[in-house]
Write a structure and sequence with these properties.
By secondary structure, this protein is of the alpha/beta class. About 35% of the residues lie in helices and about 25% in strands. Helix 3 packs across helix 4 and helix 4 packs across helix 5.
Length: about 325
């Protein structure tokens, strides 16, 4: 693992056993053999349709779910034992999607933000705890008089700021942002995304930014990874993936991004996929995208294409790269 890599994931799998009858069960392969790495201070955007496994990657990465298989490395060390996980959790944090359900309605704002400090015993006196809470609130743009109020008294954007302050309480190095703006009004989204940018500059944070809104991801990400049905199909620099998407699924996603210029929007050829997403319980053999892919051939049904670098750090998993014009 090179010095500038903070997080490295190798062949990560997360399977959930689903009961299918009286005494039978079947594995739902939410994340199936996913590998990627994130550099220090970088934002890796993770996109894909609902149900493709994005959130499961984020939660498994932080050991909120126990990985079925694979390796997670953080700062040059593999996370294996309980002690590793406890230390790792202090250096990592998560911002959840829904600011309405992820905050305890019975706790004041000060107690919500202070909870990680209590769990990890990160203060020596009550005065130090209070000072740290007020400092965190100021960092995310909340007033000190908000400290003794309850979450339900705030708007969605303010609640998400409370959630972000809680995530930053332990001074983490790595933050998983699980669709942190999708539940917010569009007018508020830009403010919260700009705040993520500012916090990254101030604190040297590294992000995994999970989203399905491609414009949001483009604004904040250095590199973007695309998932489909538990598999990673493409990974490249943000500009590269927008200008030169190589995988047929990524091309379809990118063709759906609205363009601000009416002339360009008229010329933009929308690539509409046929069929529906298969169920992850009954995923197709070989490449999971083959049932909707215009370039699919026999080899696609036989084996999953290797996720490989095709040049300049642009990774793609596709058997028929040469056919795609």
């Amino acid at each position: 693992m090179s010095q500038d890599m903070l997080v490295e994931v190798k062949h990560l799998k997360e399977y959930f056993n689903i009961n299918t009858g009286m005494f039978s069960s079947k594995p739902l392969k939410a994340v199936d053999d996913v590998s990627f790495s994130i550099r220090r201070g970088e934002t890796l955007g993770l996109v894909g349709e609902s149900g493709c496994g994005k959130t499961t990657v984020g939660r498994t990465l932080l050991h909120l779910y126990k990985p079925t298989d694979g390796e997670i490395w953080f700062d040059g060390k593999q996370i294996v034992t309980r002690k590793d996980i406890a230390e790792y959790r202090q250096k990592t944090a998560m911002v959840f999607q829904d600011p309405y359900s992820s905050l305890n309605p019975r706790m004041t704002v000060a107690d919500i933000i202070g909870e990680p400090l209590d769990v990890h015993k990160m203060y020596s006196s009550e005065a130090e705890r209070k000072e740290r809470i007020l400092e965190l609130m100021a960092q995310v743009g909340l007033n000190s008089e908000h400290a003794n109020r309850y979450a339900h008294e705030f708007s969605g954007g303010q609640r998400q700021r409370i959630g972000i302050a809680r995530a930053l309480a332990t001074k983490p190095q790595f933050v998983v942002c699980d669709e942190p703006v999708s539940a917010l009004d569009v007018s508020i989204q830009a403010q919260v995304i700009n705040m993520f940018d500012e916090l990254q500059d101030q604190m040297g944070l590294t992000y995994l930014f999970i989203a399905h809104d491609l414009l949001v991801v483009r604004h904040i990400s250095d590199r973007i990874a695309v998932m489909y049905l538990g598999k990673m199909v493409e990974l490249a620099d943000a500009k590269e993936i927008y200008d030169h998407p190589l995988h047929p699924y990524t091309r379809s996603l990118m063709s759906a991004v609205p363009l601000p210029d009416p002339k360009m929007a008229r010329e933009n050829k929308r690539i509409v996929l046929s069929g529906d997403i298969p169920s992850p319980l009954n995923a197709p053999s070989g490449c999971p995208f083959r049932t909707r892919c215009p370039y699919a051939s026999e080899v696609c049904a036989q084996s999953m294409p290797e996720f490989k670098d095709v040049g300049g750090g642009h990774f793609v998993a596709c058997h028929n790269m040469d056919k795609i014009g």
